[in-house]
Amino acid sequence: MINKKIIIVTVLVLVGLGLFIIGYSMGISVSKPELQKTANMEKILNSKSITMVGSFGKVSKISGRTITLEYNGETFDVTIKSDAIIYLYGTSASGSGATVGVPSQTAATFNDIKIGDSVNVTIKLSADGQVEGSSVTIVK
Questions:
Q1: What pTM did the predictor assign?
Q2: 3 state DSSP class of 102
């Protein structure tokens, strides 16, 4: 009776160990390509030869200096650097001293960014892996 219990426990332990090993090896084989893609993307975005990458969307949330952009149902958070260059791009209105309807670009501040604005953000990956916005164009 005791021998049967020992055999049953041993078989269950071996089966469990076998399933664990199979699951672990499958997990590694599945995640290795994804890890490689992530490492490649980080290397590319940190490259000195990549001077800028852009992101466009409608501002759906502002928290501190982090804005959430929404485009085609997807969202993306980007923290705008304190020294970011920010412009307002739109068309001139009457009374501005310029021809009405002519595109114009004027300096702006972070506080000029409002929920619902369409923005184009130049982004870069910081040394610690965070996405930072170095310039913002608010499109009106």
A1: 0.63
A2: coil
Q: Do residues 93 and 78 make contact, with C-beta atoms less than 8 angstroms apart?
A: no
Q: How many domains does the chain have?
A: 2
DSSP state of 129: S
d(CA 62, CA 28): 38
What six digits make up the tokens of 119? 């923005």
The pLDDT of residue 93: 60
Whether residues 58 and 122 share a domain: the answer is: yes
Residue 98 above 60 pLDDT? no
Question: Range of 84's domain?
Answer: 53-139
Same structural domain, 42 and 72 = no
Specify whether 67 is located in the same domain as 44: no
pLDDT of residue 81: 95
Q: What is the pLDDT of residue 52?
A: 72
User: What's the one-letter identity of residue 64?
Assistant: G
pLDDT tens for each residue of 55-71: 999 999 999 999 999 99
